[in-house]
Amino acid sequence: MALILSQLFISLILSLFFSLTLLPHATTSKANSSSEYSITSIFNVTAANHKTSQILSFKPFHNQEEFPQTFSSSSSFKLKLYPAASLYNTHHQHKNYYSLDLNASLNPGITTGTSNFLVQIGVGGPPQKFYMIFDLQTDFTWLQCQPCIKCYDQPDSIFDPSQSSSYTLLSCETKHCNLLPNSSCSDDGYCRYNITYKDGTNTEGVLINETVSFESSGWVDRVSLGCSNKNQGPFVGSDGTFGLGRGSLSFPSRINASSMSYCLVESKDGYSSSTLEFNSPPCSGSVKAKLLQNPKAENLYYVGLKGIKVGGEKIDVPNSTFTIDPYGNGGMIVSSSSLITMLENDTYNVVRDAFVAKTQHLERLKAFLQFDTCYNLSSNNTVELPILEFEVNDGKSWLLPKESYLYAVDKNGTFCFAFAPSKGSFSILGTLQQYGTRVTFDLVNSFVYLHTLCCN
């Protein structure tokens, strides 16, 4: 058991900093289209193992960037996203927020949502800075507040309302209070909430309006969010949850954002150039897919894909894989909590088999945890892998980032196919497969834009 936990710990750390090096056979000016590209790529095993060794010796830091004390508002906002492990201060005694369960299935709309990434915001006037969970699966934004009844250990000082001139309690008669599940009135007429997620985690507090600031790019007044003073759950390592779902309580809805865009990027020493943006246009040359909505989970983002190709060949997958039926089954959820992509069981089997058929030249190993297809690349400097892509529309495809095909589970050259079967009747687009891609949600016209060369 100790060995398994040790291996799992290593794989989780690698998920936050893993950056493989692939040398393509041929280049193309159409990075997001399948019209001109090589159907294989050369995987640099030596470089990948060297990177893994660097990761395992990584010394985390705790970012000390300060917000300016004065702000000017703007029509668009840009924030940095930080890999969770990079913000862990080794002098702190609490655990880091990279303890996600790779074997857990995503329950649409009813889990707290863990994340590989945190976002830094300022709350109050003057702003107090906090690292919040980057969460696409939930709507409600909340942070821990004084006075605490039951608070977990967090990296930063807990929000102190007495130090903010913009702090306002909301009445239980307000529209926002009525939108909250299990809301109630306090004795003095203010809105209280008690939210319990399906995994048993819980947060309680009062609903407030506050000023939320975005590093140096601006601020928004009177944003409704939760001021929690009683919490129970695996929130350790963050100061709260930044709810970015599609529901009416989510942060994008509260600021009337026309678009939301993010890019997850791995970089050396844990410092990330990952960003989260609101009201920014999609990158020129992006491939466009429909942003679908599930009638049974309206707060989730579903990307409307058309098919899958492995090594240039279209794979025959069930028609239900990427469509959503009236009962809420099917479709692919864009996730910030699942590390790897999970495909509906039948779809996963045919995609995996197609990948295996095109990697017969590689030495297979036994399964590792949820990974059923693993390879021994310890004696290889480079190997050839088939290109993987998702079909979008009009014959165009999104070529998955090459570093997302295989996943290193140790530093000895063991790599596994970085996909797994879903535990439910839906698929999940994991963060590993999103690395290096600018994902833009057009919240007005319901489209998703994907671009692999637009993260800087």
From TrEMBL:
Residue stretches making up the Peptidase A1 domain: 117-451
Signal peptide: 1-28
Any one biological process term the GO annotation gives: proteolysis
Top enzyme category: hydrolase
EC number of this enzyme: 3.4.23.12
Signal is among the record's keywords: yes
Keyword terms of this UniProt record: Hydrolase, Protease, Signal
Pfam family of the protein (one): TAXi_N
MF (Gene Ontology): aspartic-type endopeptidase activity
Keyword Protease in record: yes
Family: Belongs to the peptidase A1 family.
Protein name listed in UniProt: Eukaryotic aspartyl protease family protein
Organism of derivation: Medicago truncatula (Barrel medic)
